[in-house]
Amino acid sequence: MTLSVDIRHSLGDFALEARFESAGRLTALFGPSGSGKSTLINLIAGLIRPDKGRIAVNGRVLVDTEARVFVPMHKRRIGMVFQDARLFPHMSVAGNLRYGRWFTPSSERYAKMNAVVDLLGIDHLLDRRPARLSGGEKQRVAIGRALLASPKLLLMDEPLASLDEARKAEILPYIERLRDETKIPVVYVSHSVAEVARLASDVVVLSQGKVAASGPTEAIMQRLDLLPAEERGEGGAVLDTKVLRHDEAFGMTVLASPAGEIRVPKLAMAAGAPVRIRIRARDVMIATGRPEGLSALNILAGTITAVRPGIGPTVEIAIDCNGAIVLARITEQSKHTLRLARGQQVFAVIKTVSFDSATTGAGLPVEADG
Amino acid sequence: MNWLLDLTPDEWNAVWLSIKVATVAMIASLPPGILLALLLARGRFWGKTLLNGLVHLPLILPPVVTGYLLLLTFGRRGPAGSFLAEHFGIVFSFRWTGAALACGVMGFPLMVRAIRLSIEAVDRRIEAAAGTLGANPLWVFATITLPLILPGLIAGAILSFAKAMGEFGATITFVSNIPNETQTLPSAIYTFTQVPGGDEGALRLTLISIAISMVALIASEVLARRVGRRMDIE
Fold this sequence. Notes:
The complex is a heterodimer of chains A (370) and B (234).
Chain A: E1 3-11, E2 14-22, E3 26-30, H1 37-45, E4 52-57, E5 60-64, E6 69-70, E7 78-81, H2 93-99, H3 113-120, H4 135-147, E8 153-157, H5 165-181, E9 186-190, H6 193-199, E10 202-207, E11 210-216, H7 217-221, E12 236-247, E13 252-257, E14 260-265, E15 274-280, E16 284-287, E17 298-309, E18 314-321, E19 324-331, H8 332-338, E20 345-350, H9 357-360
Parallel strand pairs in A: 3-9, 3-10, 7-8, 8-9
Antiparallel strand pairs in A: 1-2, 1-4, 4-5, 5-6, 10-11, 12-13, 12-15, 13-14, 16-20, 17-18, 17-20, 18-19
Chain B: H1 2-5, H2 9-42, H3 48-60, H4 63-74, H5 79-87, H6 96-120, H7 124-132, H8 137-148, H9 150-166, H10 169-175, H11 185-194, H12 199-231
Helix pairs in contact in B: 2-6, 2-9, 3-6, 4-10, 6-9, 6-10, 7-8, 9-12, 11-12
């Protein structure tokens, strides 16, 4: 799938000027509120018409103001999951799910009712009315409804923003399954580093109506300067790992990563399962020699590849640990004292307990202590 | 009880005629009522305030004036009346159809108002959601908007029916008071009050009139509640 966007649109004082291409499995449109992400997704869905520009999906032009092309939303075959689920209150869950099928030519119907119901775990809800569903259930039904219209592209506009942490944790695994098990490309709007780092293959960063950066998630999450101020502490390295084994005695899970073994609080996942983890830059300490007599369990050897000024009196240090880049955010003073510089051999130190459900994904039992 | 139901044929006719006129007025008003309510709730066009005023006019004008205006336009010599009679064979003047027209016009503002309010209460974002699922605007209206405004539709229809049952001034001005043709319940009651010894008949018809109105109101309540339960909106 390739999504190519090049548009200009103004709403009152706000001007959106965005240009990017993405071919990712799940592309995140990321930025603080008011950055224009929702406007952008509404433009792709066809809910609004851009002042100027062009949007194409897989070469099919949806809007081209110069060529006077505007495909109305009901002909775009683009699914949309809204922040508020927007289920039809006068239909049952099953009726909601079947709605889109009606309008899909039978030759293009690839989504199967049973498969989607299983994927989202909504079998027991089919006879209910939307008013009788919890927030998390509503959102799962809304995802199912969009999928069953067999869309060519699925847009999700902050689908978790109105839910509490427990409900978010309930839905995230389903979105991961959707990303991994179906072939539908997804564009996902979010202002949360945790969601983007966990779900996205590619990120487009929006800031004040402009594209500030775009690229693979691993690269973007290292650019702390791109993150909104209140989310900056959440930035850091994103590593794809596998569950190696569980350490039952100490309630830990050992993950295999290119940088070496990483110990995190126990995850409810089978050995061999892929886990994407995020190591917050602020959680990483740097030692110039292999530390001894230290409680932290994760000590990764690597080479400094970059030293960048950070926000305030801090520096960001990128450490290449056997191909995986780990980012550390430390004070100017520490950098000065340790005389850290590019090319230096160092050890990145990460406490096991600094990992939590927001950085290791679902399935975490009660927070381990110690 | 016998006293109440022991009606003369003319009185029975007045009862049946009233129900027929009110039902036809209600059903015939629904399509243009929905259309105008949609236009007023969602349309953005020049002259919207004027149109809104025109729709509400029968509510403000003395019924006699409305009846007289109908007579001028839809009477045999009126422009609309002569056109319809010539091309479609539809005659309003001094016929029960004229009574239905007068009742429909008088109840129209009430119906449009009720439907318009329910359309304005519909969450347009839900309609947009249906659009992203592939439904064109006509399907969105039929499958989302229409079911969601059903309670307002029922309320508007019942209001129009109730107004028609009670309409007097415009009807008698437009189509007069002809037994078996245009003499509805209110006209019949009025006739009774104009003749000596007509009190008993007037009272009988009054009680029947009350009964019909009550039944219509209760039916609308039950219907609206059932629709509401089906919809299950919290």
